[in-house]
Structures are given as C-alpha cells and as structure tokens.
Amino acid sequence: FRGMLGDVEEPTAPYGLLDVWGEGRGIGEARLPVAADLGARLRRRARALGVSAASLFHLAWAQVLARLSDRADVVFGTLLFGRMQGGEGVDRVMGPFINTLPVRIGVGEEAVEAAVRRTHALLAELLRHEHASLALAQRCSGVAAPAPLFTSLLNYRYSGVTRQQAGQPGERRSIRAEELTNYPVVLSVDDLGEEFSLAAHVAAPAEAERVCRMMHMALERLVEALELSPGRAAGSIDVLPEAERRQVVEEWNRTRRAYPHGVCIHELFETQVRRRPDAAALVWDEVELTYAQLDARANRLAHHLRGLGVGPETRVGVLLERGVDLIVSLLATLKAGGCYVPLDPGYPAERLRMMLDDSGVRVLVARGGLAFAAESGGLAIVHLDEAATALAAEPVESPRSGATAENLAYIVYTSGSTGRPKGVMVAHRHVVQLAVETDYVRFAPGDRVAQASNASFDALTFEAWGALMNGATLVGIPRDVLLSPPALREMLREERITTLYQTTALLNQLSREQPDVFSTLREVLFGGQAADAASVRRLLKAGKPQRLLHMYGPTETTAWCSYEDVEHVAEDALTVSVGRATGNQRIYLLDSALNPAPVGVPGEAYVGGDGVVRGYLERPGLTAERFVPDPFAAEPGARMYRTGDRLRWKADGRLEFVGRVDEQVKIRGFRIEPGEIEATLTA
To answer: I need a surface site. Which of 67, 102, 328, 659 has the fewest CB within 10 A?
Structure first.
C-alpha cells in the first residue's frame, strides 16, 4: 500500500464543495444510462488496449474528481468483489464479501493512452490486497485518523443481465440494490454486459444529476481522445457538461452595454464644460473651480506642454501632492495629447528616478523638492511655483490634442516579481468604459464624488474622471481627515458627498472605530484586497449607505472588473462575494489547460473585454505571458488578462475570491510582489 499510495494529503473534496453546492438534508440520487454508442466505443477501445472497461471508468472518475477538487492527483475509494481469491466454494457462500480500498490516480501531463494502461495495472495490483482492511491502508497512507483517506467512492458493479433481459419471462431477474455509505459522493457504474448505467448519490441533493453528467462527459471525452489523439495529456480533457460550460463562459458573461466609443477623456470633459460652465467641477479646501475655470486653467498648462513637445503618446510625469494642481495637471496632460505618469511624492527618490527613467518621461510637472530630478538628463521640468507668469500668457481655449481613444491616457506602476516595477499602459477608451454609462454606478450633475486616493493608485481614475466626464463635482478629502473617523464622518456630511471609494483596509478600520461613518452617502465602493466579513457586517448593521459596493479587479483591467452590491453578510460568512462582471468585461475561471472550471471549483481568473489594457511598458515578454488570446471571444484578436487570482463561481453566478496562484500580497490596497523585496535584499 505504501508503494501504491505514496504521500497522501488530507483530502479536501468534495467536502469543500458542499458549501457551494448547497448541502441539504438527505442524499440526492440521480441515474443516467451511458449512451449505447458511447458504451460500444468504450468497449472497443478497452479491447484494443488490452485493458478492462473498469479501467476507463476509474480514469474518467479521477478526471471528474480532479476538476471538482482542483487537483491533478486524487485518491478515492473503489469497491472490490472479494470472492475472486476466496478459495474453493466461496462463490456459493451467502453474504457480502465486498471491501473498500483506496486508489490513487494522477491526471496530469501523462498521455491518455498511457494513463489508461497505468490505471489498469494499478487496479490489477490492488486486487492483490482485496482482503486487506481500510484501516491498514489508512496507516500506510500517513493520513492520521479520524481524517478520512478519501471522501468519494466508485462502485463498479458487474452483471451479466442487460436491461432488456431483466424482466423477460423465463429469464433471471436482476434485483436493484444500493449500498448506502457515509461518503458524500458515491458513483455506481452498472456493467450490464452490453450496456452501462451510472447512478450518483450525493450529500448535496441538487448535485447528483450534475455528477452523473460530468462523469458521462468525462467518458465521452476520454474515448474521443483515445480514438483521435491518444498522446494528448490526460489532464487537458474537459469534463464540463456543455450546458454548464455555456453558463460559466457565456450566460454569466453577458455584460454588453452601450457607452461612448471613439472619444477621449478630455473631450467628454469639454462636453460638460459647454453644457454647464458655471457648475462646480472641483472643490478642495477653500478653493472651488467651476467647469469653465478648471477648463481654462488646464488649457493654459496644456498649451505650455504642447510648446515643450508634448503630443500623443508623450509621457508627462506628474509629481504633486493631492490637490487642485494635481487634477489640473492630469487634465492638461490629456488636453495636450500626452500620457500622464503619476508619481507619488511619498516614494523614495531612488524609486521615483527609476520610474522616470523606465517610463521615458520627457516633461515633469512638479512643485519643489526636485533635486533628484536634476540627475535625469534631458528632462524638461515645469515648476508650477515659478511658471505662473508664463502660464497666464497662454490661451484659454482648448488646444488640438491630436489624440484618439486608442492613445495612452496614463501609465501607472505596480510591483514587479523580478524586482523591477512594471508600468501598466491604459488608453482613453479603457477609462471611458470604466466610468461612463456604467452598470454599477451612474454619475450625474449634482453628484459630489470624493477624491480620496493617491495619484499612484488607480482608484483615482474612477474618482476624477468618473466625476468630470459626467458633470459631477469632485471634492477633495485631505489625508488627515481620511485617517480620523470622526473628522471624516463630519466632512462627508458637510460636503454632501454622494460617492466615496475606500480601500478595504481603511474600511475595516472605520468599521471598528466609526461604523456609521457612511450612513449619509448614496454609495460607498471598497476593494483592493480580500474583504473581512465581520467588518462589513458591522458596517451594514450600524448604518450602511444606500449602496455598499465590493469591487474587484487588477490595474490591468482598468481599476476593476466586477462588483457586488452588498446588502447582507451571513453570520457564518468568512468572505464577501466579489459579485459579477461589470459592463463590457468578461471573467473566466480556468484551469492550467484553459478549460473552464465547474461551478464551485476554484480556477484562475482571466479577464477579457473592453477594460483589458494595452500591456506593460517596454516589457513585450511579460505582456505576452500575461495578456493571452481570448479563445471565448467573438471578436477576432481579442485578448484576456491572466490575473493570478483564484476565484470560484457560486451556484447563483456570483464570484468568490479564494486566493492567489503565486505569493503576491496586498498592503492597504497596493500590490506587493515578494520577488521585488527579495531582489532588493539580495542586491
């Protein structure tokens, strides 16, 4: 047994699935005949390979369990007849001799035909131990009782009687009987000589039929692979029934909605300027700018930038604290046709120099503290402290930017696993689809949107352009207010804020210290890292906003790609759903062979749709690795982004965050690659 089992991990499936499937009272039962044609093909392939039909069923069941447990190596129980080596006359002794023993089967990169032969040899070897006890197998496995060695069972039953013969006059009648077990998933296979039949007994009653259909699909795809491509990897075979595949790939990704195409961020802002020039656009401390005033200030700086050679795809560094100057400078860069690179003044000088050099910034807009920049040769610096006179002489009309919706709007840096941060390239159209005519939040004139995020955090994209492209007012929240729950509560009321984005970490803190802080708001969005269910539950009970939205998505999909309108968090919940894909985004949960994951089974999240950005700046290899062709999209040339996040579908079509496929972590919403820290330490 030690040689057959090796080191067995304590099993997790299907117990982990019962929560998602919806465990109910009693046992669900389902029956499904194996299609006659499929059964005949299966027997032909078994005979051609010199293996038993049972071998194919065992391998197919291993493939089903591998998909349901998100593993390539599974252990399950199999029933042995117990009479084959029982000695003379044992066939005439009444009573059951059956025994249950474990079998371990891998469904990884091994060729399908080789996997079938190995499974046959494994079952033949298991027969040598058919009278051994399961307790002995448990001791040999290294899995200490009472942890179960396996949680699912395959019962392969031989019978010489066909379904047609059973019940005919003068013929032996078959008696239907079921062995009841304590295992949460049991699949019985009836080998009727000419036909096969499947029967599933599952502790989640609604899932029994699904298990049968997955097994039938696994058999169909396994036989098809043996006939057409026996060298194909066993782990690449997709066992998902066609109806479930359509559901997770198509039905739950029907997110198409209309939004302005072919326009730039600043053009939509200028439309608002013409419609409501005297409406408040930006409020920060004692400063309030109307749309016309903000437009004029940005136009003067934009003309100045044009004079320095800024145009489409030109990178402009913006090194400013949050405030009026920051918003003016970002807008001016876009009006000049350029692409802004936000630089957080709180970053170390060495990191800022690296970002300037890596991004190819030609012009830097900043105030004070520029000693480090002098080391970057060829960099034109716009000192806002000193440029007031020059800017006052520039025209107040909008310059011709020359930019299109496909040109870059900004480049924002995220942590890099190789030690080098990477620049994410985001075009105008990506931002427009994020914040205009959205299906999760609708901005309108009169709305007051809080500006609470740092310039280097992509939530600023939603805050600033969500407000200014839709005619709302952007209201700055100072850092000291953000960190003081009572002061934040007071300011949100005084400024009549309607919409606020918070990182999950800050929301957790506010929930503990001032749980009613958001009670006057229309909507609060939060995200950036895994949510703490207890904190969200506390906030909902103490006085929630009209809407509390849990957002999910990496920078590479333009801030976020899914949302959950959180109305209730169960007392026993450990996490908060990340909901469904936002408009024009598609989320696929895939295994290593890019097969869709079944409902309830974790898979790596790949995001397709209009929010997928251009790629990484000057990193073609990394871009090709993370931005891959979308095989599910209707439009030619579509790509999807490989997030590295593990999610799973819940039965109602909502998504649940599970973890990472790598070691990336989140700190206050910022992505941190441990590899970057390791590279610094080893240097």
So the answer is: 659
Report the alpha-carbon distance of residue 468 to residue 280 in Å, rounded. Answer: 10
DSSP, res 464: I
Instruction: Return the residue matching tokens 């990340």.
Output: 578
Query: 144 pLDDT exceeds 90?
Result: no
* Cα-based distances in Å from 128 to 77, 84, 85, 138, 300: 16, 10, 9, 17, 87
Which pLDDT band holds residue 90 (cuts at 50, 70, 90)? low
* Gap between the Cα atoms of 193 and 215, Å rounded: 19
Q: Which of 209, 216, 64, 115 is nearest to 597 (CA)?
A: 64
Alpha-carbon dihedral 404, 613, 345, 360, rounded to 10 degrees: -70
Report residue 359 as tokens: 């991004």
Q: Which two tokens stand for residue 49?
A: 């390979």
Eight-state DSSP code of residue 80: E
Which of 214, 215, 144, 155 shows the shortest CA–CA distance to 183?
155
Distances (CA, A) of 444 to 267, 277, 379, 525, 661: 17, 15, 40, 17, 40
Residue 91: the pLDDT is 60
| Alpha-carbon span 242 to 213, nearest angstrom | 10
Nearest to 126 by CA among 227, 298, 3: 3
Bridge pairing between strands 523-527 and 499-503: parallel
Q: Which residues pair with 523 in a beta bridge?
A: 499, 547
Percent of the chain with pLDDT over 70: 91
CB 53 within 8 A of CB 127: no
Rounded Cα–Cα distance for residues 70 and 647 (Å) = 12
d(CA 437, CA 434) in angstroms, rounded, equals 9
DSSP 361: -
Question: Residue ranges of the alpha helices (H) in 455-503?
Answer: 459-460, 466-468, 479-482, 485-494
CA distance 642 to 656: 17
User: The dihedral of CA 595, 601, 606, 611: what is its sign?
Assistant: positive
503 and 669 Cβ atoms separated by less than 8 Å: yes
- How many separate helices (H) and strands (E) can be counted in the chain? 22, 29
- Token pair 């996997």: residue: 115
Calpha distance 321→332 (Å, rounded) = 16
Q: Return the DSSP state at 108.
A: S
Please give the sequence-ordered ranges of beta strands (E in DSSP) within 159-215, or none if there are none.
185-191, 196-202
Q: What does the pLDDT look like over 433-467, one tens digit per residue?
A: 999 999 999 999 999 999 999 988 889 999 999 99
pLDDT at 85 over 50: no
Which range scores top for mean pLDDT: 301-310, 345-354, 528-537? Answer: 301-310
- Integer Cα distance of 209 and 197 in angstroms: 13
**Amino acid letter, residue 570:** A
Distance of CA 354 to the CA centre of its chain: 30
Start-to-end Cα distance in the chain = 48
- Contact between 675 and 417 (Cβ < 8 Å): yes
Structure tokens at 31: 């029956």
Which structure tokens are listed for 528? 């950036």
Type of residue numbered 35: A
- The one-character DSSP state at 372 is G
Instruction: Give me the DSSP letters along 634-681.
Output: SSTT-EEEEEEEEEEE-TTS-EEEEEESSS-EEETTEEE-HHHHHHHH
Q: How many CB atoms lie within 10 A of CB 135?
A: 10
Q: What would the 3-class secondary structure string for 495-551 be? A: CCCCEEEEEHHHHHHHHHHCCCCCCCCCEEEEECCCCCHHHHHHHHHHHCCCEEEEE
Enter the tokens of residue 240: 């998902």
